[in-house]
Amino acid sequence: MAKYREIPCKYYIALGQCRKGRDACHKSYCQHCGRYEPRAKVRCVNKKKMWKQRVAGQDV
Question: What end-to-end distance do the CA atoms of the chain give, in Å?
Fold first, then answer.
């Protein structure tokens, strides 16, 4: 399953502007670009797992 990367690439400037000369649109092409590098190291939280743990804790 593909990982959805919401963190913008460090080469992404604005819509249609990329430092690597690509057609920059963060919602589609930039996420699948081979040159994608995230701007910052951010820990992605698994919200589904957190919700299941919270619900399981309430049922006990």
Answer: 32
